[in-house]
Design brief:
The strands form five sheets. The chain has a six-stranded mixed sheet with strand order 6-7-10-11-14-12, with no helix packed on it. By secondary structure, the chain is an alpha/beta fold. Strand 6 and strand 7 form a beta hairpin.
Length: about 300
Amino acid sequence: MFGQQNSGLDALLHRPRPSAWQLFLRNPSVFITRKLYSWRRIAKATRDTEPEVSVVCISDTHNSQCEIPTGDILIHAGDLTQSGSLEELQATITWLHNQPHQVKLVVAGNHDLLLDSNKDSQDGKAAMGRQKLEWGSINYLQDDSITVSVRGRRLKIYGSPKSPRQGNWAFQYLREDDVWEHKIPDDTDILITHGPPRGHLDLTNLGCHHLLRELWRVHPLLHVFGHVHEGYGHEWVQFDAFQAAYERVILARGGLWNLIGAFKAFVLSLFVPPVEATCQLVNPALVGGLRDDLRRKPITVYI
């Protein structure tokens, strides 16, 4: 059950970033729109009346361990392991438990097979293995919420291990299935999912458009995800007309009229004050590279 699985998913998710010329030839409309989106003006939200909370984000460690910066909250957005065995999981959980952060939050990923009861074998060994896990100071979230108090602020956090299906892995759903509709509480401050939303830090097209729609509905302060290793990075989103036009191009995989609409929205955005960006997106996948031989640094944000 916990042996090495087919590498087709890994090859897809961990493929190297194509060159700019390759991207342009593949889809000129998407390439141009993404370039416009990278030039948008960002007005970052400020919180003068509330203390800032530092959030250290990691994901997709796949049994590797690194030096983690200090902070108020530590988040791991899934794929703690490579094969999902009890021994792998406990080693990573113990490492995270020993970190000094006041609040530690973890969701599973598709590689963390032991944590998905739908993948249990009939002999009951997986269920017994889950019971042996010692989470210590870690809050493990599986499609549920927790409210924490940090620096005098109460923050509601929702976490889910789900990602679109590719292969026979844990916590996955058919891409066309809407498993997200109204599942995320309206008052969520921090959203943690293993899979990314479509069009953001996901190599353009590997994220979920249903999750993207929920992101627009909830407007969290922070969304942390992983899964797509080469999507590593940080992004502010503003939920404005130009972002909507950009996403229409991405969801439609291009199109001349969509490109014209995005260009028009971009030009118009230059003549009005930018919408304040209140939401940060983070893909902190620590493992990367063609053969997962690259080790990246955790990403720290402030909310």
